[in-house]
Design goal:
Elements (H helix, E strand, L loop, with lengths): L16 H4 L2 H9 L3 H6 L16 E5 L6 H11 L6 H33 L8 E7 L5 H13 L4 E7 L17 H6 L2 E6 L14 E5 L7 H10 L5 E5 L7 E5 L7 E5 L5 E6 L5 E6 L4 E6 L5 E6 L16 H4 L7 E6 L20 E8 L8 H6 L5 E7 L28 E5 L6 H10 L5 E5 L2 E6 L3 E6 L7 H14 L6 E4 L1
Parallel strand pairs: 1-2, 2-3, 3-4, 4-5, 5-6, 6-8, 7-9, 8-10, 9-11, 10-12, 12-13, 13-14, 14-15, 15-16, 16-17, 17-20
Antiparallel strand pairs: 18-19
Length: 500
Amino acid sequence: MPTLRRVRRRTADGEDRLSALPDDLILLIVSRLATRTALSTAVLARRWARIPRELPALDFRVSDILPPEYGRTVALRQRNLPHETTLAKMLDGLMARCEIGTMRTFANGVTSFLDADGGHDRRLKTLRLEFFQTHDSICADRLITAAVGAWGAEDLEVVVRLASGDDQTPAYSLPHDCPNVRSRLRSLTLGKCCSLPSLHSYGTLTKLVLRDIPTSTPVDVYERVFKDCTGLQVLHLTSCCCAHDILVVDAPCSQIRELVIEECSFLAIELRDLPTLVLLACFLTNTAKIVFGLVPCLKDTNLTFSLEHDVLVAARWNDKFDNFLLMSPTMTNLVIRFTRLRRWIVPSRSERKFTNLKRLLVADLPSNWDILWPCCLLMAAPSLEVMHIYVAHSETEPEYMWRRVTWLNSCNKLRHHHLKELVMIGFTQRHIWLLKYVVSVCTSLQRIVLLKVGHVQYNGHWAWQMVRKQTCPWSDDEETTVRRMIKKFEFRPPDVLILG
């Protein structure tokens, strides 16, 4: 009986180029594959058997093996479809059985992976794990213990999905019998149905991310995070809910330098004491007020405003600009954005000066808002050097968004002596009044860029670049109007004037 041999793929000239690659390059290629695919490469050749053991990250996600019809069914139920009760219950039962069966397959796969490991050396940096909270989820404890305790993982992400129709299952807790989880982790991400452990003993933890935490969570769970883990430097709260409206942060011993609060349910955020906070980003949907207390190191701030539901903004009496900008005078960079369903913020003359503000971006302003809106910030920031504005053109903006800033007429006698650069994307002739105001009050303008088409390119939450997409020709009348107006009202001609 003939024996079977493994056949290697060769090129037309007989050369096996894949096997000729160095191990480091093969590892780089394999590490970019999905975990299930990467682990299966061990059967390709005897030389490749150890490659999966050197992968820096492993991803085990139950969503990767859920059938496509499951996602379609979830989308229907999220829209409360179908309306017929009997049919809806039938779909819920199908979803529950699909989750249980998929989780059983997932647990068998994780168990087989752990059993096949055989105690061989494996070095790991990151483990990402997603599963349903069922009786089969015991495999998660074993995988986390092995990854952190034996393989040296320092970054852990755990997302626990609650099974359909099961509201009684307790939240998942990290394994308590693995001390390395508390003494080795540097980055921890917990999502959905996860209970937050006591962080007192997590001495090496420097980054914590909480996502999609349920509404039943007490607000003091979030407030304790700032106090309990004194070595924490980065904290992200994303879509986190709680049973209380106000988040109070009073942590004089905290070392947090970066705080991101994104689409959380807090109506008010009070930062009483965060002595080392440098970077702050707030993506605000329901939040009506931010109170800045002792934040002496705050340099970069991003405030992004949007609405969760299409409600009349006029009814939101508390959307006053001063509710968000009574902040630390040490701030040097400020980003203000209006995204998704635009949320109007009433501009006003701030009584508090931003004495150190150097760079300002006001982005995604709807085209039918009064474009003089950013001028209140210009005159409140006497040291401002760079002002960038991006107007998002839209033909479907609701009519109630049109408001006028009437108090600026009294500011024409004021002067600004430090603004050097004005860049505006989305410029039209209706914005000529903004240009007139800026050139008439600013004595040191060196560069003016007015672009009809372009976009803002972000590098993280706090850095940005104004990008010119294409040259959009200006008519002779448009260009003449702008140049005459600048010449008439300017204190000194700008070194650079770009119209595109």
